[in-house]
Design brief:
The protein has helices spanning 15-40, 54-70, 83-102, 108-111, 115-143, 161-181, 183-187, 196-219, 226-245, 255-286; strands spanning 10-11, 147-148. The protein has 287 residues and is mainly alpha-helical. It has a two-stranded antiparallel sheet.
């Protein structure tokens, strides 16, 4: 079910955004599955050296978890229906590319190791650089398209959900910003051992989640946040599984661990409740 430009306003979705989303989804499925499986087996198979297998596993869970939602981008009629998913995607691509270059000394290319992981690290940097440039170009082309004035919100968010979304979005955004800007300080608060690159890589994903949640709050329309609603519960469930698998590596008695559980649970509740509200909206329209 898609909208047409002008039905509720907005820009026609550019083909480049669809191509980018599909490409990232397909790459994310393969790469994410590799990192998750390796993490479950206790192997830190990320592009850089990690003291624990949990961190690269969480990166993989986020990649694989967002892939199904990215594959639905092509069904949308307008940019506004997918921007709460695509903007976080751009944050991830540009952010991870920057982190990989800034923390290049921790990459397997620099530290050495098994040949497969060295080659994986090299491919990681090259692929991220290409996708990051493509993502910026797609945004520029997308915003060059004319926009029709917005005529109204077809399915506004219920009032009770907005303070909760603001709290959840601010939590993820603040966590991501802290890990990126000051990985030494904030990385020490992560309830398992992380390297500088781990802290900043996780920070990129946390920041992207914050952008997505706060963007959904700003949209205030279930019609325009459907792809994001598909992504967040999958990511939260995948992250929860990895946290359970690596429970022995996590300091569950710490305050940061409790906060992390709350943030992950918040994503799950947001996604499930959003899908239920969307279902009720469709039922009401049908009646």
């Amino acid at each position: 079910m898609s909208s047409t430009p002008g039905s509720t306003g907005g820009r026609e979705l550019a083909p480049g955004v669809v191509v980018l989303s599909t490409a990232v989804a397909l790459i994310g499925i393969g790469t994410g599955a590799l990192l998750v499986i390796a993490s479950v087996l206790g192997v830190a198979a990320g592009p850089w050296s990690s003291p624990e297998a949990l961190s690269p596993g969480l990166l993989g869970a986020a990649m694989a978890g967002t892939a199904p939602a990215l594959l639905t981008v092509g069904r949308a009629g307008t940019w506004e229906e997918v921007r709460t998913l695509v903007w976080p995607l751009v944050v991830v691509l540009v952010g991870l590319c920057t982190v990989s270059l800034v923390d290049g000394g921790e990459l397997r290319i620099a530290t050495g190791g098994p040949v497969f992981l060295v080659l994986f690290s090299l491919g990681w940097v090259a692929t991220l650089a290409l996708l990051a440039v493509g993502a910026v170009a797609c945004l520029v082309l997308q915003y060059r398209r004319p926009a029709a004035p917005r005529t109204g919100r077809s399915a506004p968010l219920p009032g009770w959900s907005k303070p909760l979304l603001a709290l959840l979005g601010a939590g993820w955004f603040g966590l991501g910003a802290g890990l990126l800007v000051s990985p030494g300080f904030w990385g020490a608060l992560v309830p398992w051992e992380v390297s500088r690159a781990d802290a900043q890589g996780l920070g990129v994903w946390a920041l992207a989640l914050g952008v997505g949640v706060l963007g959904s709050l700003a949209e205030d329309d279930l019609t325009r946040i459907r792809p994001a609603l598909l992504a967040v519960p999958v990511v939260s469930l995948a992250a929860a599984v990895l946290l359970v698998v690596h429970a022995s590596a996590v300091d569950w008695t710490s305050g940061p661990a409790a906060c992390l559980v709350g943030l992950v649970a918040g994503l799950l509740v947001t996604g499930v409740s959003g899908r239920l509200l969307w279902g009720r909206h469709l039922a009401a329209v049908a009646d």
